[in-house]
Inverse folding.
């Protein structure tokens, strides 16, 4: 992907899993990358692995002072910011039994904090002639699900937030897009499958027409595309990285009405 060499990116939740894959992809394309995470150990290890063009900055994105410190540290290290990837999230969700505090914590982490970080970065992006933002939604934000509420609602809100941000920032050549991954081999899926990738692919293949769960690198490559010059005329869209999950509908792509004639 062209146009990334010498740019500077912040990836929240970048220390592990999908976030770490995004960090490696951006660094591999020549960008300086700031890893923003609360996982000190993993973030420091990843920054050392990637060398001088990578910086780890501990950051709880729900803390305004830490957001300010993040922006200041990245600006000191690299001179400014061109790219923001809002990957950090919480999976906190007790469905309709969730408390008010849990609702607010989910919205604060999954929606508001990314918007507040972007607000802090707009001046430096404008000064550098534009920028690219990738927000993380999910297939969970597009379909009804039982026993869940907080996470799907937050991910649905991110889609609307992305459109609004894209409209406001387009005059400044700051593009804002969203990514909606399907099941992806990451810490959560690995834990649920007890480390059995074949099991995850077998079960996930029933819901994803391409027959498997995604890899972290599949998501990272999509982020890389949206941040690159190859996507310079794309803004305000949601890019599904879901192996076809979103196109199947509630009948999973099968001719369900045909059963009436059986």
């Amino acid at each position: 992907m062209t146009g990334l060499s010498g740019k500077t990116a912040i990836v929240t939740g970048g220390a592990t899993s999908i976030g770490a894959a995004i960090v490696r992809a951006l660094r591999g394309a020549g960008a300086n990358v700031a890893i923003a995470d609360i996982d000190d150990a993993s973030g420091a290890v990843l920054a050392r692995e990637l060398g001088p063009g990578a910086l780890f900055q501990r950051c709880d994105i729900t803390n305004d002072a830490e957001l300010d410190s993040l922006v200041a540290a990245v600006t000191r290290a690299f001179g400014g910011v061109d790219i923001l990837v809002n990957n950090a999230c919480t999976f906190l969700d007790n469905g309709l039994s969730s408390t008010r505090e849990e609702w607010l914590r989910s919205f604060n982490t999954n929606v508001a904090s990314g918007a507040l970080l972007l607000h802090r970065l707009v001046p430096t992006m404008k000064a550098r002639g534009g920028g690219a933002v990738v927000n993380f939604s999910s297939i969970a934000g597009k379909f009804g699900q039982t026993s869940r509420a907080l996470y799907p609602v937050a991910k649905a809100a991110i889609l609307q937030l992305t459109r609004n941000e894209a409209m406001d920032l387009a005059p400044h050549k700051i593009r804002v897009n969203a990514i909606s991954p399907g099941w992806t081999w990451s810490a959560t899926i690995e834990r649920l499958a007890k480390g059995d990738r074949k099991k995850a692919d077998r079960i996930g293949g029933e819901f994803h027409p391409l027959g498997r769960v995604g890899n972290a690198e599949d998501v990272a490559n999509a982020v890389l595309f949206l941040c690159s010059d190859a996507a310079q005329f794309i803004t305000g869209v949601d890019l599904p990285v879901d192996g076809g999950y979103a196109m199947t509908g509630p009948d999973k792509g099968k001719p369900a009405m045909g059963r009436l004639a059986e």
Q: What stands out?
A: The first helix runs from residue 17 to 28.
